[in-house]
Amino acid sequence: MPAPNIDTIVSLAKRRGFVFPSSEVYGGLGSAWDYGPLGVELCNNVKQSWWRWLVYERDDIEGIDSSIILNRMVWQYSGHEATFHDPLVDCRECKNRFRADKLIEDYSRSNQVDGSGDAGNRLFAERKIACPNCGERSWTDPRPFNMMLRTTLGAAADENDATALAYLRPETAQGIFINFLNVQTTLRRKIPFGIAQVGKSFRNEITPGNFILRTREFEQMEMEYFVKPDAEHLKLVDEWVGLYMEWFLTLGLNQSNLRLHEVPQTELAHYSRRTVDIMYRYFPERDEEERQWEELMGIAYRTDFDLRSHSNKPTDDEGKRINPDSTEDLSYFDEATKQRFYPHVIEPAAGVNRTVLAVLMDAYSERTNDKGETRVILKLSPQLAPIKAAILPLAKNKPEIVGMAKAIKRSLQPVLRAVYDDTGGIGKLYARQDEIGTPFCITVDHQSLEDEAVTVRDRDTWEQERINISDLAEHLQKRLKP
Ligand code: GAP
Q1: Distance CA 276, CA 278 (A)
Q2: Cα–Cα distance for residue pair 8/138, rounded to 1 Å
Q3: pLDDT per residue as tens digits for the range 66-102
Q4: Which residue has the least CA distance to atom 12 on ligand 1?
Q5: Rounded CA gap, 137 and 154, in Å?
Q6: Which long-range contacts (CB under 8 A, 24 or more apart) does 410-417 make?
Q7: Mean per-residue pLDDT for 374-397?
Q8: Model confidence over 300-340: pLDDT tens digits?
Q9: Which of 97, 325, 400, 402 has its CA at 20 to 30 Å from residue 355's CA atom?
Q10: Alpha-carbon separation of residue 227 from 192, 197, 262, 309, 337 (angstroms)
Q11: pTM of this prediction?
Q12: What ranges make up the beta strands (E) of 12-164?
């Protein structure tokens, strides 16, 4: 049973130290969230799983970590300065601002009317769409709003000094493209190969919201896979879709909460010739099935657009250099065919935060104990669980038991994340660990002092077994393996 809605996860996340509203002591900051002790572990485990899967377990992918702030020209030639816009409309009555495309999408789906292109935009002038906030139908014309977050660089920089203008990256991908030759030549890579990067990205979203689903600061896990110009690009998109679907299943996501969405040609990003989104059912409470889904990640065929745009050689129809500012040619020389070309790119781009939210929603379950009390159990895949084992002394006023429990915790810590907890009765301690997804609780009791064994309790079945302390680390490691 997944979580019935995102609100259930918001409350669990705050109650148990996964995610807190940011800047709360100053009244908060809209749609900004801080990851607490358990949240940071969960995020790290998702990122590590991804990195292990792509960079370590495959032979054809390298990792990098580029700057968040890049030369402004990167964004000029990537097309983001000119086109990384969302359409914005203002309600003239309540002054709230909305994404025009989202309002059009909702209206056209509910009313079965054409919402594409100009027909969609006309819905505002024709007063068809009601403001979700005040219900009025008085709108400004939709206009483009650039989503890149601006900053200025340098001590002497004036706020309006165009020469000091810089952006916080809206995608990690460009840091990969501008390093393509560095990686390819230093690691002597032959095509096909990929470069992966995980890190923060920033977008000045018009309508952030739904907890960590859409925020202005978020983390991406992106990989650019460089292939030949004559590769079967559209098929490769399907291949990567299949691989990511499998990876999401290993994280514990339920197949029935995942589905694919072929992005229509009219909605493709400026660099994409084909994009397939993997959608997750973030809104199971909505009656209308179509409104239950939101993008978890996208897999795009970016052609050779980016490497070409950042290169100094390509020219336009009139023979003029497309990029007179670049000092490099990011083309690739294929030794086998003696041909030089700009590699084409398949890009799987996933969000860390959206993956974490999906994982939390699918892991959520409830179970009623013998006393008729309902308990929350977070059935996280063991590889993702923030804490793998909790060591609980059955009598906290008995120094020998406490000493033994703490020694077990210390002995496990080098091989897996373990905690010691004696802040409540055993029932409460079990419940707390179930709620944060700890796969195993280890209880140390009077008997342990005599037989050097402990009780291992399974989170999902609540079954208990007696294990010798000397075998404990190996026993747990075996059971934690995916
Ligand atoms: N380089 C391609 C790219 O950035 P995208 O579809 O715009 O593609 C990729 O972003 C992923 O990043 C999304 O599928 C989503 O998981 C995550 N993402 C994008 N915007 C986000 C936001 N405002 N808040 C949280 N995650 C976001």
Answers
A1: 7
A2: 35
A3: 999 999 999 999 999 999 998 999 999 999 999 999 9
A4: 351
A5: 45
A6: 411/473, 412/472, 412/473, 412/476, 415/473, 415/477, 416/388, 416/389, 416/473, 416/476, 416/477, 416/480, 417/41, 417/386, 417/387, 417/388, 417/389
A7: 95
A8: 999 999 999 999 999 999 999 999 999 999 999 999 999 99
A9: 97
A10: 5, 18, 22, 17, 14
A11: 0.94
A12: 19-21, 33-35, 61-63, 85-90, 97-99, 143-146, 149-152
Identify the DSSP state of 139.
Answer: B
Cβ atoms of 293 and 279 within 8 Å: the answer is yes
Q: Work out whether strand 19-21 and strand 33-35 pair parallel, antiparallel, or are unpaired.
A: antiparallel
Residues in the chain: 482
| Per-residue pLDDT, 157 | 65
Whole-number Cα distances in Å, 390 to 411, 421, 434: 13, 7, 10
Radius of gyration of the chain (CA): 26
Are 328 and 73 spatial neighbours (Cβ–Cβ below 8 Å)?
no
Residue carrying structure tokens 């009791």: 445
CA–centroid distance, 419 to ligand 1, in Å, is 34
The continuous run of DSSP H or E covering 333 comes out as strand 332-334
Q: Please, are residues 361 and 410 in contact by the beta-carbon 8 Å criterion?
A: no
* CA 23–ligand 1 middle distance (angstroms): 24
Find out whether the beta carbon of 331 lies less than 6 Å from any atom of ligand 1.
no
Question: Is the CB–ligand 1 distance for residue 41 below 6 Å?
Answer: no
